[in-house]
Design brief:
mainly alpha, two-stranded antiparallel ribbon
Length: 373
């Protein structure tokens, strides 16, 4: 959790300091475990329905009243105080725990151990520090993440490597956006509006001979593979799968079914924690899932609850149907050549139902569907 919080909120990689002092930057083990101490009491648990007393499909994050972080394999256990990345230690009444108050339990090598109560809400204190005026990482990291999300590549790339050895491609742009973001009170809507109003965001993804090799200065839009979550919800939309899953199920059961399905996508399409968010290496299991998964395949057929079925019900002419299929699957109209070709193919067959299903299947399994243009 410490590594993820640092990457996502600060744009800083400290994972390599979990087991040893980093060899590539200045982060030490005490830095990693100082951040980990803020989450030593944090747990995830399933919410229990108060009426049925049964677990639901919803989870909540809770904080225990006690718990300390200790550097593994230190004897006696070396407790680390909750410490912000710039080195300031979290103040807590009574100071750090005495040795006799710390209980490593049966396994002296474990990282999280028992300790005294101090009444400090560590996760809340960490969140307050994130948006404090003297935090030099959060605003810059947030701007870089959102810029990368909307334009395809961060001003600092990889997104989670804000380091002096990895300078931004356009320093004045990052500095200006960071300053505005702070002064606006961390107004995300304003930040998104500014980014989406920029010419960098509005560029075409189709390169010219002059800028085809540019990957850092936004002369054209960089293609980005959809994240596992984006892939999942895009497929839910183009197949009408949520409607099919919802049949005969209450909301909790539906959410549980969706979460199980989503977990499979995250497993197959997820990337390693250390990789950039736009890293993509297609695999055979990914292709097989999209081409053969029974729920997805049923959603791509003509049916009362499927997106394709509704398209054919709403539109009567082949031209209008082909246009709507392209808009639904790819977010664009077909070119004149594409439309003329598929309309002519549809007209050649008496059983055009199979042709519509094949066309829709091909669009959803195309590389264009899997990329953000």
């Amino acid at each position: 959790m410490a590594g993820s919080a640092s990457r996502n909120f600060l744009g800083v990689q400290i994972n390599c300091a979990q087991c040893h002092d980093s060899k590539v930057n200045d982060w030490k083990m005490k830095d990693f475990w100082g951040v980990a101490a803020f989450f030593a009491r944090t747990r995830v648990r399933r919410v229990i329905d108060p009426e049925t007393k049964q677990p639901t499909g919803v989870f909540e994050i809770v904080d225990l009243p006690t718990g300390e972080a200790a550097i593994p394999e230190t004897k006696p256990a070396q407790v680390v105080e909750p410490t912000y990345l710039e080195g300031k230690v979290l103040h807590r009444p009574g100071g750090p725990p005495k040795f006799r108050e710390v209980n490593p339990g049966k396994n002296p090598d474990r990282a999280f151990i028992a300790g005294p109560r101090d009444g400090v809400e560590r996760r809340k204190e960490f969140a307050n520090w994130l948006v404090a005026d003297d935090n030099k990482w959060f605003a810059k990291a947030a701007v870089n993440w959102y810029w990368g999300q909307f334009t395809g590549v961060g001003l600092v790339d990889p997104l989670d490597d804000l380091d002096v050895t990895n300078p931004p491609s356009i320093p004045p742009a990052l500095d200006h956006l960071t300053k505005e973001f702070r002064e606006s009170g961390y107004d995300l809507k304003r930040l998104i509006r500014v980014i989406c109003s920029s010419r960098a965001y509005q560029r075409s993804s189709k390169p010219t001979p002059a800028n085809a090799k540019d990957e850092r200065f936004y002369s054209h839009r960089k293609l980005g593979h959809l994240t596992p979550d984006q892939m999942f919800y895009s497929l839910m939309s183009v197949t009408g799968l949520e409607n099919a899953l919802a049949r005969g199920q209450d909301r909790d059961a539906l959410e549980a079914a969706k979460n199980r399905f989503l977990a499979g996508f995250v497993f197959l399409f997820g990337n390693d924690e250390g990789e950039s968010g736009d890293t993509f290496n297609g695999t055979i299991p990914q292709a097989l899932l999209l081409m053969n998964n029974p729920q997805i395949q049923n959603g791509l057929k003509i049916g009362p609850a499927s997106a394709l079925g509704k398209i054919l019900q709403k539109f009567e002419t082949p031209e209008a149907r082909v246009e709507e299929m392209y808009l639904t699957a790819l977010g664009r109209f077909p070119t004149d050549t594409e439309k003329a070709y598929f309309v002519s193919v549809i007209g050649k067959y008496q059983n055009s139902k199979v042709i519509y299903e094949d066309l829709y299947w091909a669009l959803v399994n195309s590389s264009e569907f899997q990329f953000n243009h």
